Amino acid sequence: MEIPNIFNKNNSHKPLADRMRPTDFNLFFGQEDIVGEGKLLRQIIENDTLSSIILWGPPGTGKTTLARIIANQTKSNFEEFSAVTSGVADLRRVVKEAKENRELYDKKTVLFVDEIHRFNKSQQDGFLPHIENGTIILIGATTENPGFEINSAIMSRSKLFELKPLEEIDIINIIKAALKDKTNGLGDRGIKIDKKALETLAEYSSGDARVALNSLEIASNSKLLNNKITQDILQQAISKRFISSYKQGAEHYDIISAFIKSMRGSDPDAAIYWLARMIEGGEDPKFIARRMLVFASEDIGNAAPMALVLANTTFDAVTKIGLPEARINLAQCVIYLASAPKSNASYLAIDNALRDVREEKFSGVPKHIVNAPTGFDKSQGKGKGYKYPHDYPGHFVEQEYLPPELKHKKYYQPSSNGAELEIKKRLEERKQDV
Fold first, then answer.
1. Which residues of 370-391 are buried (b: 16+ CB within 10 A; e: fewer)?
2. How many domains does the chain have?
3. Which member of 178, 192, 274, 375 has the lowest number of beta carbons within 10 Å of its beta carbon?
4. Residue 41 has pLDDT above 90, yes or no
5. Residues with Cβ within 8 Å of residue 146, at least 6 apart in sequence
């Protein structure tokens, strides 16, 4: 399979977004934190002193564009490679050629791997020896959280640079540059855009330059009055505000975290907003419902026992009816969970108990609470001394149920919130009665 050349200089058939990729920093807008004047990444690119890096960020934020700038700046052999369209055999061929360049001409190879997360961890291992011996300098681009998707050995040998969604002013500058550029943009057509349409397009794009330029191209091919893109024409070119399909990208983890933390913080308005963001971004509603099921026990527990029941019912409803109707079920449950009293006592109890199971000595189940169904069992002392709670006032009697080495442990510490307050009072009353 031939590896596609994503930097092919024949631009006639390419979309505007691809044609407008700059080859130097003069027309690169945004990401000032990492490529502004004097910043590390800019310096090592301009000085051609690049070492292996990982570029992480949402679509349309400049990862591939930075790779193009590197290709234009470096004196090393530059190879581009897409993990989507190419396989392991193609990777072997590229590495073989890089090794030959290294051995025969003492020339390094900069290897740009787009969507590197598409390779599994064992496939990613194939890069390691060639990174370590200097055969290749790796540039990995990913929309996924590298901590989850990139081999830790590669991460330890690479510098991570995080790209953020572009600011609206950056999008505006990119649009203006496309309208002005007569070689790669729309400058030869003399197209203008009014201020309101320009601002709307920048907002609509949600920090994604590719979305902005694709939308501009669609609008430019409409029937224009006085060769100008107006607000009305732009609205026809875009069906609705673009929301990044973040479920395949870095934002996935950020937004689900914001969603969970908003419910934990008892803010139903914020929780509903993040729910809407996930729905509009194309998140699987069953994934949302599963997270709510976990939340119901982890963060609410017995402070509001119905939370788990409602979350489970919501998951069932979402599974049965799907979107768009299931948005209402999700919203009802989110509001309940966010507004409910909170307790993580059950979560802490099981984790503390699990820690002791793994770390503490275990001498066995105390004999008095072991079942003794046969005469032989009884002769071994099993069940001897057991007190049947229902034979005592309040159906409670003091006796030890934990192993001897853990008899003073208190795993469950109920909070004073919601229904758990009643549990706390009841347990404290039992202590006083003893």
1. eebeeeeeeeeebeeeeeeeee
2. 4
3. 375
4. yes
5. 54, 56, 117, 155, 160
